Amino acid sequence: QVQLVQSGSELKKPGASVKISCKASGYTFDVYSLNWVRQAPGQGLEWMGWINTKTGNPTYAPGFTGRFVFSLDTSVTTTYLQINSLESDDTAVYYCARGGMVWDDYWGQGTLVTVSA
Amino acid sequence: EIVLTQSPGILSLSPGERATLSCRASQSFRSDYLAWYQQKPGQAPRLLMYGASRAPGIPDRFRGTGSGTDFTLTISRLEPEDFAVYYCQQYSSSPKTFGQGTKVEIK
Fold it and tell me: Which residues of B touch A (CB under 8 A)?
């Protein structure tokens, strides 16, 4: 069965970096692109962008350029989200979801990133 | 960027009642490019509908309709497990965008 399993919660200080992983299984990895979605506490869903799992080419939504980096390791069918220069507003649950520029049919369980001094 | 506006923000209904959720877009697009998700507290969103199609395992009391700029998710008879937050999402153009959500709560 299709599964997206994300890494665990992170507590970071402002200015630090964090790298979250999303391991895919149960399907052919490079057939489907992967999205990243942010959900701040008590708020709605924000699409951050997607990564083409065949080419490794990332696409970032406006507002998620510069400090946010999507990457891949196809050998372990895993995509990564790195956030640099963390700010308190980056405190959120981050989800990976299978789909690219179509609907998102499978979602990871989410990773809570807390940024606090 | 296509902005999606959902209404109402909160829908208070009883089990067995019909729920009608609206999603209005700032630009017109084909209904094939609209999805609906359900999210329960502490859980990841779950895909309900993409275009007019229900995702696998989604019961037929869920129905998605609409075109152009006005889209609707209808839940014909609310079951206890349907009380949740619902989001629409367009993937007609980049960036993909979500509506702000409609909470369906027990009256």
Answer: 1, 35, 37, 39, 44-47, 50, 55, 87, 89, 91, 94-101
